[in-house]
Design goal:
With 145 residues, the protein is of the alpha+beta class. 29% of the residues lie in helices and 34% in strands. It contains three helices and seven strands; from the N terminus they run αααβββββββ. The strands form two sheets. A four-stranded antiparallel β-sheet has the order 4-3-6-7. A hairpin with a 3-residue loop joins strand 1 and strand 2. The protein is elongated, with a radius of gyration of 24 Å.
Amino acid sequence: MNWGYRIMLVYIAFVLAMLGMVYVSSRQTNEMQDENYYVKELAYQQVIDGKNNLQQLDEELSLTDSADMVKIRIPAAAAQNITDGKIYFLRPSDEKKDLHLALKPDAEGIQLIPGSLLSKGLYTVQLSWKSNNQLFYSEQSFNAQ
């Protein structure tokens, strides 16, 4: 085989590789974690304050998964008079599997969420609430069973 055929084969392989990359990149989705990221970035000081308020408590927030329920336990000092409480289960791989709920714990600061609402996999759980005019915020990874 002479050098002319080799150059032609290199060009053909290059074009096929480029077409393959175009095809693969056109099949990718470009989902954002949050559509309103800019507005939330401007209000991020509230998140910092909420994290600091939660860290100052004696107890820690806990998130546990059993076979059929997800149990969220809010520290007693932060579970009194909760207003404007939100729970976000954010699925980084597929925003269609995100779950948004109101935070309404019982008198002991426990809220149970049916495990059937979540698909198996990794979630980022964001909890935010106001208790006794103080903001609280928690964000942690959670692997749903």
